[in-house]
Design a protein that fits this description.
About 45% of the residues lie in helices and about 15% in strands. By secondary structure, the protein is α/β, with parallel strands linked by helices. It has one domain: Rossmann fold. It has a 7-stranded parallel β-sheet, sandwiched between helices.
Length: about 270
């Protein structure tokens, strides 16, 4: 596992840190890498449980109960919220929201809420963390985007657009802070067995992804977390403005016909499909 420099001064903030990918990242940063971790989530019970579990295992964590949809409230609260451990050296913008809605029916309130959580909140958190990172001459920001931000998908009008915006914003911040010793990168998970995906993916959707993903399965939260740990490590010090797809080959695949060669008749060559 890539090592984040072991140092008691390292502070990490993980949004959506109480479940799925975020929980794996919170626990890994605290227990494997020795960072003090803010577990930020709107679910107070889950965030407290994760933080208590980390502390009981010998790590250091504090739950932060925040509704990321409230931009003005978040901006105002951040200095006091991060006073205990100090501003983060490592920021993981993992929290997100999604719903499957046809583009022509996407309600304005859903659009605005999705943008507030998936785009505006990460921007505000980066603006809060970056002056501290600049002063220290070291920082790692990883924004959890999605393959939906790289290619369109049915029903992902607000979600896909927000993740594309997050990827663009990652590059924008990256080039403006590159000489501060701070890297800003994104990861783009494909289908992953997280609570949010389980809530929105029907059995038919899961079967469809099984056909579209070359590895023929959903990813595990731990596999996505490992990519985040690498981006947050010293080994990734010359990588910035990059989006890493962790997707079982989903983005790489075009026309994917897993059984094509099994079904081909030896006497009838297969025509090219475009």
């Amino acid at each position: 596992m890539p090592q984040i420099r072991q140092h008691s001064a390292r502070v990490a903030l993980v949004t959506g840190g109480a479940s799925g990918i975020g929980r794996c990242v919170s626990e890994g940063l605290a227990l494997a890498h020795g960072a003090r971790v803010y577990v930020l989530d709107k679910d107070s019970t889950a965030a407290t449980a994760v933080a208590n579990g980390i502390n009981a295992a010998g790590g250091r964590a504090r739950p932060l109960i925040v509704d990321l949809a409230d931009g003005p409230g978040l901006r105002q609260a951040l200095p006091s919220l991060t006073a205990e451990f100090g501003a983060p050296d490592i920021l993981i913008n993992n929290a997100g929201m999604a719903a499957m809605i046809p583009a022509v029916e996407c309600p304005l309130d859903h659009w605005q809420l999705t943008m507030a959580v998936n785009v505006t909140a990460p921007m505000l958190l980066m603006q809060h963390a970056l002056p501290h990172m600049r002063q220290k001459g070291w920082g790692r920001i990883i924004n959890v985007a999605s393959t939906s931000g790289l290619r369109a998908g049915t029903g992902r009008m607000a979600y896909g657009t927000s993740k594309a915006a997050l990827i663009a914003m990652t590059r924008q911040f990256a080039i403006e802070v590159a000489d501060w010793g701070v890297t800003v990168n994104a990861i783009a998970p494909g289908p992953v067995d997280t609570p949010m995906v389980q809530a929105h993916h029907s059995s038919a959707t899961r079967s469809l992804y099984g056909d579209m993903v070359p590895m023929r399965r959903y990813g595990r939260p731990e596999e996505i977390a490992d990519g985040i740990f690498f981006m947050a490590s010293d080994q990734a010090s010359f990588i910035t403005g990059h989006t890493l797809s962790i997707d079982g080959g989903f983005i790489a695949a075009g026309v994917l016909l897993p059984d094509l060669f099994d079904q081909r008749s030896a006497a009838a060559p297969t025509a090219a499909l475009v």
